Structures are given as structure tokens and as C-alpha cells.
What we know:
- The structure holds three protein chains of three kinds.
- Chain A is an all-alpha fold.
- Chain A has one domain.
- Helices cover 73% and strands 2% of the residues of chain A.
- In chain A, strands 1-2 form a two-stranded antiparallel sheet.
- Chain B is mainly α.
- Chain B has one domain (8-320): ABC transporter involved in vitamin B12 uptake, BtuC, CATH 1.10.3470.
- Chain B contains 14 helices and two strands; from the N terminus they run H-H-H-H-H-E-H-H-H-H-E-H-H-H-H-H.
- Chain B has helices spanning 2-18, 22-47, 56-73, 80-99, 106-123, 152-174, 176-186, 188-193, 198-224, 229-233, 235-248, 255-274, 279-296, 300-320; strands at residues 134-135, 226-227.
- A two-stranded antiparallel ribbon of chain B has the order 1-2.
- The longest helix of chain B is centred in the middle third of the chain and has 27 residues, at 198-224.
- Chain B is globular and about 70 Å long.
- Chain B starts with a helix and ends with a helix.
- Chain C has one domain: P-loop containing nucleotide triphosphate hydrolases (Rossmann fold).
- Chain C contains nine helices and ten strands.
- The N and C termini of chain C lie far apart (44 Å).
- The mean pLDDT of chain C is 88.
- The chains are: A mainly alpha, B mainly alpha, C alpha/beta.
- Chains A and B meet through helix 2, helix 7, helix 8, helix 13 and helix 15 of A and helix 4, helix 5, helix 11 and helix 13 of B.
Amino acid sequence: MSKRLAPAPTLSRKREREVCKVLACGNGFRRSSEQGKGGIFRSGLAAYPVILLQIIAGGLLLGAVYALFSAGLSLIWGMMNVINFAHGEFVMIGMYVAFLVVTALNGGPVAFAPAAAAFLFLLGVVVYFGLIRHIIRGPMIAQILSTFGLALLLRYVTFWLFSANFRTLPDNLIPGTVDLGGVLLGMPQLVAGGAAFVLTIGAHLLLTRTALGSRLLAVAEDRSAAMLMGIRPDRMQALAWGLSAAGAGIAGALIATFYPFSPGVGETFALTAFVVVALGGFGSIPGALVAGLLIGVIQSLSAYAFGPVYKDVVVYALFVAILWVRPQGLMGKLV
Amino acid sequence: MRWGWLAIAVALLLYPWILTGPFYERMGADLLLAAIAAAAWNILGGYAGQISVGHAVFYGIGAYVPLLVYTHWQLPPVLGIPAGILVSLAVAAVIGVPTFRLQGHYFSMATIAVAELVRIVVGNWDFVGAAIGLMGPAVPRSLLDLSFKSAVPYYYIFLAVLAAILALTAHLERGRMGYYWRAIRAGERAARSLGVPVRRYKLWALLLSAGFTSLAGSLYALMVGFVDPESAFGILVSVEMIITAALGGVGTLLGPLLGAAILVPLKATTNSLFGGGGSGLTYILYGGIILLLARFEPGGLIELSRRIATRSLKKAKARAA
Amino acid sequence: MLLEAHQVSRAFGSFLALSGAELELAEGEIVGLIGPNGAGKSTFFNCLSGDLQPTSGRILFAGSEVTRATPEAHARLGIGRTFQVPATFEEMSILDNVMVGAFLRHPARGEAREAARRIVEFAGLDRLRDQPARSLGTPGRKRLEIARVLASEPRLILLDEALAGLNPVEIQEAIALVRRIHARGITLVIVEHIMEVILSLTGRVLVFNQGRTIASGKPRDIVDHPAVIEAYLGQRRQRRRRE
């Protein structure tokens, strides 16, 4: 195990990915993972309440970020019955926007989060008008391959621009740790998790409590009826793509503060979002929130129990299990 | 039509005599292998319309098992081929049985999730070589090891396998199976109303496709004599199958071969132009091609040429009238 | 009885689209289903063809229970259907479309092809046999759907607005086709808005309103039935008010 954990100075591209996943997890709750793989379960959970709390808290914070970007995927699915395979790449691009704002403009989180949102919103709208609206009523193969091809394109353009090297944002962007009765939480994680939580609830309120939201939902419910009411579905769907991408972008920018990234990270995020949406029920933002938090906790518990590299394995296996047992999701209901 | 196939067959049989030298011989073998894998994907994605974006899982299993039986039990790798196919079929059933109850994108999402899951597990499992991968016999112990210095023997083995897959596909295409697959792709509800057992026929397509993809992976491992998680299970393995079939024409017999005939030389060219470090450019190109195909011509080049042909025919008729 | 439906109900969430629908159908009948939009005709149709499972109630076909059987099982037993919005296989040729139906009873390709050819001729689509389905207009598509389901050799065909959107000449042709189908000994249930079709084709009519059958009888009598007039006029009045 240990030989693969130590990052060599020059890593092959393949290997780098593995290391990323290790680092990414270890970073979130470094203290707990140092306790050693499997120890907590062998010695009984009761002996380590603080570690357990630490793991759960870390999982919840990361899970809130999952919820934020998964909500966008869910919205698109619920409204247009399109699954966006490039959603993870939207998150990844959000990370690189943050990186550029920090390195080129010397900006902080207050600058890069909105910058990522704005850039991704624009990208989402462009993708909608350039691609999605043409394939939305096309054959299945066009629907799936369009966003799949887009994912590849975005991933490798980023690769070409920034190389495959892992990037990190400076440690001191959001300095400090908070000690909650022995549970240590890094400020970057707290800020990211907190902001993501608030934004996800905000998105839900936007959909359910505002005029704009009801127009969006009207299009989701019945396109032609919405048209009769004077709503232009095309605009609403473009807006949904913009919002969905913007959510992914902010989520990416937020975790970039503590999550090393390379152009390849998108795939993991996309798959995580699939699991969250499948668990929470397609088209449901509250479902995405609960499922996101749950997946975050499951992931950090399994990282601790089986070793960091297996955290995604457990989550993907959960996805297959959901499809076998309860394909409509836990809170399954379409918009 | 029959003459066209004959011409293709003759050209493929003669290829190693026309373009000689290790570079072209290997490219020929790679081309046929890409066509085999794409033809396998095409059975499911093209004919039955169920889009897998994680077919690498079957390819990887097929690639690993032969070298695994060699590494642990010193058996000839060939013996691992049927074992690999069996494992692939089991994995296919795990994906297909639940998702084929559902319509839409669930199947696609499950394929990529399972492929990633298996890739990570394989990359960390010492029994299967973890991140390092597995080696085949360095020096052939007997002919059974199917280890040759030249790519030409592989070329002819691959050609035979491709011919067999295409012959089987052609046979199925003409019969009830092919009609039912195309009906399912066109509209599940209508197909069911006519008595098509949709779930069973989708599963048939998946199992056939997974089995042949596994075989393609095995052939790859036999030729290269080395596999690692990324080259066998990586997402790009799936991407190459998809783009090869989609560029040529999904749901057509010739599509996979046509796609391979364009993409394999293209990839060899871009890789030598941009070097290994610039291989990202190849995949930018791939992403762009897939995206443009989906947007403008989901039927691929064969459909495009058909459309151009009918259009010019109409024009000619209009001129004659 | 060929087909019996007893107390068939179907809810979507809290909305009861069908509540206690009844139908008894003898072999050789042509029965019409009429009723205002949203009366539950389509839901009832979907329950009869297996596309939807009733929330409660029983459906028997030729004496055996089919309440929860799949659509493909219905087709195998001999219940065929067409769709309100034609669902032809667009990229496949007309003959190939019909062959999909024919394969149900003729697994061998040659026989299926022969059977499909006969049906295509019967349905008057002979000339267009090798054209892709997408080249057809709505009337052609509806005709193709009928041919396709005929090829699956059903005992009962459910026609869901198979004549809607046709011009008067096409309607006459379609009526003739339905008569010829009936002459082959096939029982039919027809959902239709056009009264002319109902009056000239059906021997018996069931009127749907708010998810249940409110009247049944000979077409001529039904037209004058007070409950029917109320259901139709009531709705028309409402519609006028909305506009």
C-alpha cells in the first residue's frame, strides 16, 4: 500500500490519478486517516467517538458540495430527460477558473467563486444553444454521445492548456481550523460545505418560491402547456443549463481550496453526481441534498474503513445496488 | 454489394504483402483489433440501441484473465480466453438485469460506473498486479502461447475473428433477432405491443457484445503481452470503441471496419506528429468528432454517404425530368 | 366472452384517471369507446393492452387472467393495439415494420417475410413497401400501424384514434379497411371522436366520463342518451367559458 501512497517527483499520468484520489481524501481529514486503515472498526467504534465524529463531519461538508453540483444534474434530468456526462467536467473547469483567478489575478474566494459561477453559466448556455437543443428530441445515441463527446473535449482541452499535472490552491487562502470539542475542521472545508449547503437550499427556494422558478418548473412539467402560457421553453431550458453549470462551477471552485485537481478529476465527480441523483430521485433538489450528504458520509467512512482508494468503489457499488433494489431512488419522484 | 465485400476481403487478405515492415504490420493488426472491438460494441449500441460508455470493463476482463492464468498457474494464456468471457458475461448480467427493466439512460450510467469501479479495484489488487499490471510469457514455450515476434500472425488471427463476428452479426441482422433489436432501438413501447420481449432481447445483445468485447481484450493481451489498468480498463478504451463504431456508422455491418480504417491510421499520425506528450490532442479530436457526429450525423459516415447518394440521385432525376 | 374488464381503476398519484370501468366483449364484435377528453379512454386502453397496470380490478382475456401481464404477453395471447400518436419504426422500411409484427407467429425469416408481404398488400401499402416509415404522412403511418399489428395475428385489436387527422376520403378508406379486418374474424375496440366512424362501424358503444362507463348500447340510441348529452355538452360549455 505504502509504495503507492508516496508521490514520486515525476509521475506517469496514470499513476497521478491514483495519487490524487489518495491525497484528496487524506486532505479532508488527515488526522483520522493517520490512525491507520481499518483500526477503528477492529477496535470498535465506541472507543473512538471523536474520530467517528470527525469522519462524519468531514463527510457532511464534502457531501454538501456533492449536493450542490448534483442538484444541477438532477434539474437537467428532470426538465429535459437528458443526462449530462460532461457535468463532472463543469466542476473541473470551476476548479481551473479558481486556479486562474488565484494565480493570475491574485484573487481570493470572494472573487473566484462568482467568477467560476459566471464563466460556467455562460458555458452552460452556450452548450445548450450549440448542442443540447439540437439533440434533445434526437435518437438516444445522439443524446448520450453528445455530452459524452463534450466531456472528452473539455477534459482534453484543459489537459492541453494546463497539462496533466496536479494543481493545488495555496493553503492560506482560507486559513485556520475550528475545534469543536476535539473535532477539528479545516476552514476551507467549513466554508465550502457551508456555502454549498446554503446555495443548494437557495436553488431549491429559487425553483419553488419564485416566479422564475415556477416558469422553469412549468416547462419541466409540460412544455406545450408552458408555451401556451407565454413561456419560451427554449429560454427556460437554456437558463436551466446555465444554472446547472454555474452550480457545478461554484462547487468546483469551493472544493479547489482543499482538493488537488487535474483535468481527469471530472469523471469521478460526474459518477458521484450520478449516484447522488439516483439515490435522491431524478429531478428532486431536496433529494439531492439528503443523498449528497449521505454519500459524503458513506464515502469518508469507507475511506477510513477500507483505505482511501476504495472510497469511490463503495459509492459506485452503491449505485449498482440502488439500481437493483430501488431504481426510483430513496425519495423517488420525478419533477 | 457482394462484390464490395469481396473487394474488402481481398484487400484485407493482401494488406500484409502490400504494406510491409513492422510499423504497417502492427498498424494493420491494431486496425483489425479496433474493428473487432467496435463491431462487438456495435451489436449492443448500434443494433439494439443501448449505449454503453463503459465497455472497457469487458475488454479489460478479457485482457487480464489470459495473463492471469499464465502468471499464477503458468497456463497458456489462450486458455484464459473462455474464462474471461465467462467473467465478462457475469458482469454484463449484473449491469443489464436491473437497468434493462428501466428505460433511458440508466444503462449508460451503470456501464461507466461499473467500469470505473473495476478499474480502481484492479489497480489496487495485488493478485491481478495492481497498478503495475500483468505480463505474458516473455519467450514462447510452445505454439500454444501464441507469442510471435511479427505482427503478421496476429493480423491473420484477428482477421479470422473479425470475419466470424461480422458473419454472425450479418446472420443475426437478417433474422428475428436483428429485426427485434432495431424495433427496440426505434421504440420500446411499440416493440412490446407487437410481442417483442424487450428485456430479453436487450440482454441477448449485451451478452453477445460483452463476450466479443472480452475476446477482443484477450486478443490485445496476447499480442501485446502486457496489460495495466489504464490500457485495459481506462475510459479511453471505451471511447475508442464508441468513436470507431459511431464514425463508421452505428447499426451497420461495415461501420466498425470503416471507422477503424480511418481512426487507427489517424491516431498513428497524430501520435507521431504531436509525440506521446501531445496525445491529448488526439483525444481533443476524438471528443470533437463524437460531438459533431451526435449533433449532425448520428448515423455516421455510412448514413451520410447514403444521404448524399439519394440527394444526388434526386437531383439527377429532376434534371432528367 | 373474449374480453372482460371488471371494476378496473387506475390512479396516478392522487388523481383517479379510471374508477371502476366495465367492459364485456364477445368474439366478433366491434365496440366503440367514446367520451370527452380526459374521460379515461386512453388509460382504459392502456390497461387493456398491458401498457399500464390497473391499480385495482380484473381483466380476463379468453377466460384467462391478464390484469398484470406485460404488453408483450398481451400480444402473444392475441391482443394487439395501435397508438394515438403513431409509433412506427421510422428508419425501417414499411415491409420491415410489418415483419417485426409477423415474427411473433413466424420465427423463420422467410415465413415472416411472406406473411408480412400478404399483410402489406391487404393494407394497400404494397407500392410503398421498401420506403422507410418516416417517408409516410400521418394517414400512412396509421395504416402502417394497423398493418403491423395485423401481422402479429391477433384475435382482438384495440384501435386508439386510428382515424384522427384523416381527411374525409382517407376516413372512408380507413373505414373500409377496418371492415375488411373485421371480416377476417378479428374483434375490435375503437376509440374515436368522429361520430360518423362510430355510427358506421360499431355495433355497440360505451360512453366514458370521469373514469367510468356511464352508458352503453346501440350507437343510434347512445347519441340520444341524456347522460351522454350531458357529458358532452357539459364539457363543451366549460370549454367555451375557458376560451
